[in-house]
Specification:
Blueprint: H1 2-9, H2 32-42, H3 45-50, E1 59-60, E2 71-74, H4 105-111, H5 114-130, E3 135-136, H6 160-175, E4 180-186, E5 198-201, H7 204-211, H8 213-220, E6 226-229, E7 233-234, E8 237-238, H9 243-253, E9 259-261, H10 270-275, H11 304-311, H12 317-333, H13 348-361, E10 363-367, E11 381-385, H14 410-417, E12 423-427, E13 437-438, E14 441-442, H15 453-465, E15 469-475, H16 498-508, E16 512-517, E17 532-535, H17 543-551, H18 573-576, E18 583-584, E19 591-594, H19 603-608, E20 626-628, E21 632-633, E22 637-638, E23 644-652, E24 658-668, E25 679-688, E26 693-700, E27 707-709, E28 714-716, E29 720-729, E30 732-741
Parallel strand pairs: 2-3, 3-4, 4-6, 5-7, 5-19, 6-9, 11-12, 11-15, 15-16, 16-17, 22-30
Antiparallel strand pairs: 1-2, 7-8, 10-17, 13-14, 18-19, 20-23, 21-23, 23-26, 24-25, 24-29, 27-28, 29-30
The structure holds beta-D-glucopyranose.
């Protein structure tokens, strides 16, 4: 003990007699770049290579000889994943690794509130700290291109501007605590089908305008310390070692100084991994790992094969130093950060954050006859129908699956929120997936059901006749093909015969409320027969409370859709013209997929092609109403270097407090290239008391009018006529003002 203390005290002093295996303790008071250089100068080639690859499923080694800690990573992005065994996917069986599950990122995006993003990043960061994690594998910001993508629920919607504004506070909130965000999956990973074998073919304008901005914002504005490469290909190179994406754009154009981490098993070639920008390799089953080879991590592409190439002079030591520097920087920023707080897990503050974000992200899609909120001042008879009213949604969905300390089901949430005397009855309605297991974590729920589909409908319909309100809770459920990693949905329709159940309930009771739990748009052939519809996402631990808060009006809904809900799949650009899911090459297991729709993704497509959506991007109702006044601008002509302000008064014209998300879109009237009918360039969420008016001011700059000129490889504007729209959704324009760029 005394000997250890003496060594510690003598840290960094050359006079300490060094015996074999005595660690050298580096001076930790210096700034990070100095520490990186100091460490690097003392490391052997083998030590440098050692820190570039995993040593277990989720950790990578440091350099024990120099007292440099390794890194502990964890999924991400909605909660801290339970511990698995060192080298297997089986559960480690800890009893203290249950977490708070926060709402899925689609819900966060639907809040349109950067403050919620900061709260999210911070809360999750605190859970990570407490569990000793240095890198959280998230958030994901792949653009929502098709509603079939099984992982859309882990991303932030279809609009690059919205995703950019929402990702930055998440990253900052987390990294302020000394926990790295690992923004994923960079980039063009827009579907799960053939996720390892799709080769995306996309033009540069589309790449820069649609698919890169959120990553760029995370790096340049959020200062993300790590980025995860995607599984698929771009320009015939895997994205985990893709020269253009990693060296050219990320590290070159954007000046990223952090580490590029491979997706698990996304590395395929040592030479490419070395030269094409990968820094840190993790794996699922790479190189014999699945067979339990001893020291299998030595066989990783950035392990012994790298050392061999270095020994033979086939790899440049400068490239090795660059990688080691980046990984060391990540280590000093996180695991060896001297100022890290302790963090906390499963705190009431985290539950409160999850509940609040959930409540703010739920979107009221429809509310005819003001049927919602449900009365709080008198008891009523409620009938709740549907498997999703019971089913735990935090288990499943792939790597984002969690082991939660608690999860409130919608049924339980409604029961506890209902006023005294309210009768809450339940009918199953349909059977979806009665299993509840992922990666060894089980929900422990018995959802088995022996009645036939027709019997279940008959039971629900009979009970519906006696109820004041019927609340159907359905949607998807994170089972394979139903919003889950590694598979896409088979269709836009609701599964398990839910359309039939909803149609039957609508006939049985006019006061039907549909709560759709999903991370994706679903088809709603019954939309006209149902007076109220709520888009409830996967809401995490506090799901039932968040839903009940909104249904009973304790929270006035204020979320808006971060994606378009199309009427049918053929209305989606990726399906109409975009070649989803790709075309298999005759000579290789590679699926080329042309993003023919170009920049016309989501509402950009619907607006430009005049295809009416089921519910437009940016749509969401409140229990109060808002009136938009006439906007004013400070100038109608703008020159380079100038900005224009747009000021609009918004009034709460109803009788309860509520929040409105005011949106600003811009149209280029006559562009030299095909441009979308309009594009989001600003938004503001404001809370207004009944009768209150607030003025909101947006600033528009020439940058907001720019398109990416692929030939010149730069953002370009052209003089001419533009329009700015103040709107409450992409389809609900309050005012349009023309202006000119000189
Ligand atoms: C997923 C990543 C995840 C990683 C580790 C991969 O299969 O694509 O998003 O972070 O596994 O679990």
């Amino acid at each position: 003990m005394i000997k250890q203390i003496l060594i510690l005290l003598a840290a960094g002093m050359a006079t300490v007699p060094v015996v074999a295996d005595t660690p050298v303790y580096l001076d930790s008071s210096r700034d990070i770049e100095e520490r990186v250089e100091d460490a690097l100068s003392r490391m052997t080639t083998a030590e440098k290579v050692a820190i570039l690859h995993a040593q277990s499923k989720f950790s990578s080694p440091g350099v024990a000889r120099l007292g440099i800690r390794g890194l502990w990573t964890t999924d991400g992005p909605h909660g801290i994943r339970p511990e698995v065994l060192w080298d297997e996917w089986d559960q480690a069986g800890w009893t203290n690794d249950s977490c708070v599950a926060f709402p899925a990122l689609t819900c966060l995006a639907a809040t349109w509130n950067p403050e919620m993003s900061a709260l999210y990043g911070r809360s999750l960061g605190e859970e990570a700290l407490y569990r000793g994690k240095d890198v959280v594998l998230g958030p994901g910001v792949n653009i929502y291109r098709t509603p079939l993508n099984g992982r859309n629920f882990e991303y932030m919607g279809e609009d690059p501007y919205l995703a950019s504004k929402m990702v930055v506070p998440y990253v900052k909130g987390m990294q302020d605590l000394g926990v790295a965000a690992c923004v994923k999956h960079y980039a063009l990973n827009n579907q799960e089908k053939n996720r390892h074998t799709t080769n995306v073919i996309v033009d540069d304008r589309t790449l820069y305008e649609i698919y890169l901005p959120a990553f760029k914002a995370a790096v340049q504005e959020g200062g993300a310390w790590s980025i995860m490469g995607a599984y698929n290909y771009y320009q015939d190179q895997h994205l985990c070692h893709n020269d253009r994406m990693l060296n050219g754009i990320l590290k070159g154009e954007w000046g990223f100084d952090g580490a590029v981490i491979s997706d698990w098993g996304g590395t395929h070639d040592t030479a490419q991994a070395i030269t094409n920008g990968l820094d840190l390799e993790f794996g699922s089953w790479t190189n014999g790992l699945s067979n339990g080879t001893s020291n299998a991590y030595d066989n990783y592409y950035l392990a012994n094969p790298y050392l061999e190439m270095l020994a033979k002079g086939e790899a440049d030591p400068k490239t090795l130093d660059d990688k080691a520097r980046r990984v060391l920087r990540l280590i000093f920023r996180t695991s060896m950060n001297n100022c890290k707080p302790v963090g906390s897990m499963c705190s009431e503050a985290h539950y409160a954050a999850a509940r609040r974000i959930g409540g703010e992200g739920i979107v009221l899609l429809k509310n005819d006859r003001n049927i919602l909120p449900l009365p709080l001042d008198k008891p009523v008879r409620l009938l709740v129908v549907g498997e999703n009213a019971l089913k735990m949604m935090t288990v499943g969905g792939g790597s984002s699956s969690l082991k939660v300390q608690r999860e409130i089901s919608p049924l339980d949430g409604l029961k506890s929120a209902a006023p005294a005397g309210t009768v809450v009855d339940f009918a199953r309605g349909y059977v979806g997936d009665v299993t509840g297991e992922y990666n060894g974590v089980t929900s422990g729920q018995d959802l088995s059901e022996s009645r036939s589909a027709q019997e279940l409908i008959a039971d629900a319909v009979a009970k519906a006749a006696d109820a004041d309100y019927v609340i159907f809770v359905g949607g998807l459920n994170k089972s394979s093909g139903q919003d889950c990693e590694d598979s896409d949905r088979g269709s836009l329709s609701l599964p398990y015969g839910q359309d039939e159940v909803i149609t039957a309930l609508a006939k049985a009771n006019p006061n039907l409320i549909v709560v759709n739990v999903s991370g994706n748009a679903v088809a709603m052939p019954w939309v006209k027969q149902v007076p109220a519809i709520l888009q409830a996402w996967f809401l995490g631990s506090e799901a039932g409370n968040s839903i009940a808060d909104v249904l009973f009006g304790k929270v006035n809904p204020s979320g808006k859709l971060p994606m378009t809900f199309p009427v049918k799949l053929e209305d989606v650009a990726a399906h109409a013209v975009g070649e989803y899911p790709g075309v298999k090459r005759a000579d290789a297991d590679i699926w080329d997929e042309k993003y023919n729709e170009g920049v016309l993704v989501g509402y950009r497509w619907h607006d430009t092609k005049k295809i009416k959506p089921l519910f437009p991007f940016g749509h969401g109702l409140s229990y109060t109403t808002f009136a938009y006044g006439k906007p004013t601008v400070d100038r109608k002509e703008m020159a380079a270097g100038e900005t224009m302000t747009v000021t609009v008064p918004v009034t709460n014209t109803g009788n309860r407090e509520g929040a409105e998300i005011v949106q600003l879109y811009v149209t280029d009237v006559k562009a030299p290239v095909e441009r979308p009918a309009k594009e989001l360039k600003g938004f503001r969420k404001i809370t207004l008391a009944p009768g209150e008016t607030k003025e909101i001011t947006f600033t528009v700059s020439p940058d907001d009018l720019a398109y990416f000129d692929a030939d010149a490889h730069k953002w370009a504007t052209h003089p001419g006529k533009y329009r700015v729209h103040v709107a409450s959704s992409s389809a609900d324009i309050a005012s349009t003002i023309p202006f000119t760029l000189k």
